[in-house]
Amino acid sequence: MTTRTLWNLKTARSSYVVSVGTDGRLENLHWGVPLSDEEADSLHTPTDFGIFPSSFSASSGDEVSSRDGRDLRTPSLDFTFPDGSRVVNLKFAEAQADGDTLSLVMTDVRREIDVILTYDIFPEQDVIRRGCRIVNRSSDTVRLSAVSGVDLKLPRRAKRITYLPGRWAADPQLAQTPLIDGITQLEGRGGFTGHRSKPWFAVDDGTANETFGEVWSASLMWSGSWKLAVERTTVEELHAQLGIHEDGLLVDLAPGESMDAPNVVLTYSAAGFGGVSDNWHDFVRDEVLRSSEPRPVLFNSWEAHMFDVNESTQLELAQRAAEIGCELFVVDDGWFRGRNDEHGGLGDWYHDPRKFPAGLLPLSRRVHSLGMKFGLWVEPEMVSPRSDLFREHPDWIYTAGGETPVEMRGQLVLDLGRAEVRRHIRQTLERLITDNELDYLKWDFNRPITVAGDAARSGGVVVRDHVRHLYEVLDEIREKFPHLLIEGCAGGGARADYGMLSHTDLVWPTDNTDPLDRIELQRAFSFAFPANVTSSWVTGSPSLLNGRVSSLEFRFHVAMCGVLGVGDDITLWDDADLELARRMVGLYKRNRDLVQNGRLSRLFLSEDSSAVQYNDHAATRAIVFAFAHGRAFGRRIENLRLRNLMPNAWYRTNDGRRYSGRMLASVGLPVDLTGDLASTVIEVYQEGLVSGIDG
Ligand code: GLA
Fold first, then answer.
1. How many CA atoms lie within 13 A of 180 on its CB side?
2. Which of 188, 314, 509, 678 satisfies CB 3.0 to 4.6 Å to 493 for a cystine?
3. pTM (2 decimals)?
């Protein structure tokens, strides 16, 4: 018979076990393989067994940590009370279980402060979403200077962290590094997620690979400044804190007020990094996105004409885009008044009459009559000092107590804390969408929030509120225009995160469109994000970034691994190019369900080649992309050993070959690729289930 209060949070392939220790603190007894309730009940607490208690090993608990006067860890919640005390002693008070949601209320022993931890279970995706609400029930104002909210106990045997670092046009990459005996920290500053790293990580014991081994992973559902700290404690336990960056954060909670920390989602897989990606992909598609409707094949004007857009060139491009099968035409930056370079115009969201004398509606109508949707690039949170909006409302920007505002990319950030600014942005967008019959917005954000705050509002709070207000505006727009698709963007992928995806439909993952770089960046991106949110364009050759020359076919194959788009000056393409493009777009549309909503397997990435596979969940079809990067020493590209197919089924390839699923998994599909930047696509169809392939 159990004498403990214990919860076994079960997903299809994992268990997460929390209990109340004898001292009223929460203990995380297990996160990993599924356990029955009986098994969970037999788990030992660390103090029961194995660890010699000492004055150096005191802990304020596993699920949230605070300055309780004993714990030496960085607190996940940091309070200051009016009497100067910073001590908080949280003890379990009550639990509420409601379907797949568990709430654990912790209360400070002395003051009327509650911390409510919530656990939402997504059984099919093996994901648990953790939330944290801090409630001030006291009659004093309480100050918070750190709000990670979620303290996550990781297995002691985890030795390595996998994460997604980057910088502009090099985001994200994949990195793996041993966890140090101390604090391993990743962060994003400046009021946005940033290029430096995604708020996502995974840990393992150092032996996991794509298909093998236990992997624990978590991510923050938040698009503002953030911090991850993975700490090896004095008793060699491993804890991760994931939350709002504490830099400049001072939240004063008035009596009766409460604050929610950003949610953290976590998943476990015993099937390696591929298993963890599967879980994240399913979770994002099923629970984060509003819909998994197929994303349209897009044309975007940015790399074709930069700021130099006008009605006649856009009409010409639109005609061509429709001919090759594009379904959406987006005019990127440069379409509005005063916008001939990056130093003007932001805020004046009216068409430039010199570029579009009759406005944008005729172009929109023409695009629609060509059978495509129509969209525009906007950067609604920004203003250029050279704009009417700034001249009329110089006080609408963030400043730090009268400091001269700092321009970056020639622009300043609007103060979304002001209701009139939010109203203005909403009304501006509503007008643009209605007047121009828009179906799509590319919503950009091209500089950090570096100076924010005044005497009354500190920078950290401004940055926190900015993100909340951004989400609010996005939601209002989506509610008013349910048909509208929104692509999130921030100088490439600096706002590609699960927070932004909860309020948009897809993201621009990086400003790097060089196809060879993209193979690596898209691969890294796929650790956390499904292909249906990964906008990917075929741009010109040589690449604007690297000057690398590549064939149009290679560029198409790379872009087809995400949401296919075209971003080159297609009026310059010759007949052969257009014919190839038509074929590629057709091939993509035929397999879009597999790529966007199927199961993705990163087959391999070596120095000279790589391959990626997408298949349906029933394993009846697959599409495989193989890339030779740079050939050396006459080496052949390795056979493509496919995953997730049925061993006893026979499959055919589009080039007429026939293999059993078992052969495809073990011997693999031979491919013949010669030359640098060569690529191929193979479609695989199930021929019919057969018996007797054994021995
Ligand atoms: C950002 C985006 C680009 C493009 C430009 C326009 O850098 O990431 O795709 O839209 O802005 O100025």
1. 6
2. 509
3. 0.96
